[in-house]
Fold this sequence. Notes:
Blueprint: E1 8-14, H1 18-31, E2 37-44, H2 50-57, E3 62-66, H3 71-82, E4 87-91, E5 95-97, H4 102-109, E6 115-124, E7 131-133, E8 162-163, E9 171-175, H5 176-182, H6 194-204, E10 208-219, H7 230-247, H8 251-274, H9 278-293
Parallel strand pairs: 1-2, 1-4, 2-3, 6-10
Antiparallel strand pairs: 4-9, 5-10, 6-7, 6-9, 8-10
Amino acid sequence: MNSRQPxxxxxxxxxxxxxxxxxxxxxxxxxxxxxSYELIVIDNGSTAxxxxxxxxxxxxxxxxxxxxxxxxxxxxxxxxxxxxGKYLFLLNNDIFIVKDTIHLLIDRLLSSNRIAGxxxxxxxxxxxxxxxxxxxxxxxxxxxxxxxIGRGEINKEHxxxxxxxYLHGAAMLMKKEVINRIGPMPEDYFxxxxxxxxxxxxxxxxxxxxxxxxxEVWHKDSSSTxxxxxxxxxxxxxxxxxxxxxxxxDWKLYLSILYQTTIVCPKNIxxxxxxxxxxxxxxxxxxxxxxxxxxxxxxxx
Length: 301
């Protein structure tokens, strides 16, 4: 971490997550020795000015304060605009680094001019560190369902490196030159589906995305929003429809929107009400309504 251009700009977004961010920074600094890097932390409108707290505790990082919450994409894009590295590693602040194998991800990234980005193997932070991500299957054009390959299993030997339609938003190593060419992550999703939209656009532009288990990280999952947060379900409901609108075409688009509004949304609402969770039921309803109220649903390129 000196005046010359670093290999990697590590970008993480902090939102009321001081403890997690500290643990992430300390794990990175203690483990990663094989590449030069800069650490950029975006404090995304936390209640307290955690940028000051982080900068004081870790003088070697670049802590930037945004007075308002810019969302997942907006926070990352702010970091991207400041980054000086050849490659950009977008990492959630609830990631924990366990092995110094980042250089192996770079090797895969550079193995072809067509590869734009790569995600490592992602395991659950808690015991027994089960796999969360070993690549994705493609989203169904009607139901918008897919699955994380290997989820819940332990043995990564069953999941060798492969091309994947989408990277995992918690850990994405990208070529900066590709981002400069295709543009930043779309910010109007605010939370959820923005990385899927971004990856879909990258694929449309003729690039490849990869998963490689040569590097693995641990992930706490939903530390900022909470696993059962109504906010989470609001944006999932709204943005599932927005993703369909922007990435599915012809009759499949109309069928997908019909499916989401007449089957998925009512089912989610009834399931939440059956559990006595009125807040989640309302979040699904309000999120679905919010999609139709969006003034400009087209991609902002």
